[in-house]
Design brief:
Layout: E1 8-9, H1 23-30, E2 36-42, E3 51-58, H2 77-91, E4 94-99, H3 101-122, E5 129-133, E6 147-150, H4 153-156, H5 158-178, H6 187-190, H7 196-205
Parallel strand pairs: 1-6, 2-5, 5-6
Antiparallel strand pairs: 2-3, 3-4
């Protein structure tokens, strides 16, 4: 039976130089968790496109961490792509959920994270608990599952690192697919994040339908009385 959701940190911040391992995941499993959903988000700070949540299921039967696994931000695009198949074979159960820029405009970025996470979880068989990167539980109030947070979990927890790679590769592919419909903004290159070229396009053309239009986008002019929130929170 699922226990009440209790957001908490599983430990203090740890140095980021070490390779991710399964110590945190195995500690939770020794406490009775049989199927742990390790999750990470991608696209939270992007100016356009979805926010995405990757999830992998860690069980006591999981094998050795794939060679070269790191947080997606520390890997080249080629290295991330090369890790997708080893990660899928390693965890066997995985998913990625998304919330669109329109949905982010409607419910804010925290609501978008929650929506994407619930969509990712809905693709899996039942899990016993969730492990999130960071110290904020964006699932609070939306699930009965115990939710554990881990500062720098994307760099230290192998399950969270794996989830980050799956989310990053899938979201990047979505942004490449969006590019032809919005050629001025360079989504295939910047993936919706802020770059000088992207800001220049916003200044010249204004936001597209793919942008988070409720945000105060750089390069765009706003009436002070109707200024959107900086990050849509």
């Amino acid at each position: 039976m699922a226990s009440p959701l209790t957001p908490r940190s599983t430990g203090p911040a740890v140095p980021t130089g070490r390779r991710p391992d399964l110590r945190t995941e195995k500690s939770l499993m020794r406490g009775g968790v049989a199927r742990l959903a390790a999750m990470d988000e991608v696209g939270r700070g992007s100016l356009a496109g979805p926010v995405s949540i990757g999830v992998v299921v860690v069980t006591p039967a999981i094998g050795r961490v794939p060679a070269g696994l790191r947080d997606s931000k520390l890997l080249t695009p080629a290295a991330r792509t090369a890790l997708v198949t080893p990660i899928r074979r390693w965890v066997r159960e995985f998913a990625v959920g998304h919330a669109s820029s329109v949905e982010i405009d409607e419910v804010g970025i925290i609501g978008g994270l929650r929506l994407a996470a619930l969509r990712a979880l809905a693709q899996l068989d039942t899990v016993d608990a969730v492990l999130l990167d960071g110290n904020y539980n964006y699932l609070l109030g939306s699930t009965d599952l115990p939710v554990h947070t881990r500062i720098k979990g994307d760099m230290t927890c192998a399950g969270v690192s794996a989830a980050s790679v799956l989310a990053k590769t899938e979201r990047d592919a979505m942004m490449v697919d969006l590019d032809p419909a919005h050629p001025p903004y360079g989504f295939a290159v910047n993936k919706g994040y802020s770059t000088p070229e992207h800001i220049g396009a916003l200044r010249e053309h204004g936001p597209s339908a793919a942008h988070r239009r409720s945000w105060r986008l750089p390069g765009c002019a706003y009436d002070d009385d109707t200024t959107p929130a900086m990050f849509g929170v």
